[in-house]
Amino acid sequence: MVDIAVMGAGSFGTAMAKVFAEATRPEPHRVTMWCRREEVAAAINETKLNASYLPDTVLPDNLCATHDPEEALSGVGLVVLAVPSQSLRENLAAWSHLIPDDVTILSLAKGIEIGTLKRMSEVVCEVADVPDDRVAVLTGPNFAKEIAKRQPTLAVVASVDEARAQRVQYLVRGDYFRPYTNSDVVGCEIGGATKNVIALVCGIASGVGLGENSRAAIITRGLAETLRLGTALGAEPLTLAGLAGVGDLVATCSSPLSRNFTFGSRLGQGMTLVQAQAAASGQVAEGVKSCISVADLARKVGVEMPLTEAVRAVCYDGVPVSNAINDLLNRDVGGE
């Protein structure tokens, strides 16, 4: 049995806290979920429901919640970071001194930090002042609602320390959650960050009434953008052909369960960025912010990412969706 802290109580944090609580190794872990709002923690403990994010999911008895980060992190054997990518630095700065020595820190966030252009594992290493071999990331085609329903799910646990990746794999594997390990942290994180942006493009296309041909083209060219950026940063192409790349990309670009796809669809239907954010009811579409940092990172390393640039133009430069689509269609074509 291991005491596990899940820092964040959104949809995915709650679903993964449930996975850890239901993974018996050889007896159930004790899982404590940190909640930003004290009333949410109290409600979870009283009702075993997170009504704000997964209202139909009853949480296990060995999962509790707290608003106190010190209580959550005291004596734990694994720390799971489940806050949005752009707020990870701020949150971790407040907790890092509470994390026990030599404990593995597992990041669930998918994104590139605006300004620093750092991947999430790099942010963790910098803020928590830990070497990269203490950090792991979990990624893949993982929708919170399906995980919460115990539907079969594959994932990737990546770390430069193979033993740590295997340890996390052991702790999280269950009857319905099957994780694979990988040492290519760069590839896994780039795949997770870019797919959110490409899903916005697919959503926009759906919102304006484009069909499956267009979606297939966007996914394929989006993968090409991801491969160009990933390999420029040292990622292994095979990583991006696997669960962390193609798997996550296809799922996020094809399902209404995807917050990024849904957000993009609203933009395609004519909503402004502010209107689409209001309609999201507090759910974070990571690609809306990641399009800024992913585009900046691509420019920094000299990689062309026209789909990503188009999302940024629509969201932040006031470019109408129709103009962005026309610009993409009027690009020169060459060898694939």
Automatic annotation (TrEMBL):
The keyword Cytoplasm applies. The keyword NAD applies. NADPH binds at S11, F12, R36, R37, Y53, K110, A144, R259, V284, E286. It catalyses: sn-glycerol 3-phosphate + NAD(+) = dihydroxyacetone phosphate + NADH + H(+); sn-glycerol 3-phosphate + NADP(+) = dihydroxyacetone phosphate + NADPH + H(+). Keywords: Cytoplasm, Lipid biosynthesis, Lipid metabolism, NAD, NADP, Nucleotide-binding, Oxidoreductase, Phospholipid biosynthesis, Phospholipid metabolism. Residues 184-325 form the Glycerol-3-phosphate dehydrogenase NAD-dependent C-terminal domain. Its EC number is 1.1.1.94. Sn-glycerol 3-phosphate binds at K110, G140, K195, D248, S258, R259, N260. Pathway: Membrane lipid metabolism; glycerophospholipid metabolism. It is found in: Cytoplasm. It is an enzyme of class 1 (oxidoreductase). HAMAP family: NAD_Glyc3P_dehydrog. NCBIfam families: PRK00094.1-2, PRK00094.1-4. Catalyzes the reduction of the glycolytic intermediate dihydroxyacetone phosphate (DHAP) to sn-glycerol 3-phosphate (G3P), the key precursor for phospholipid synthesis. Belongs to the NAD-dependent glycerol-3-phosphate dehydrogenase family. This is Glycerol-3-phosphate dehydrogenase [NAD(P)+].
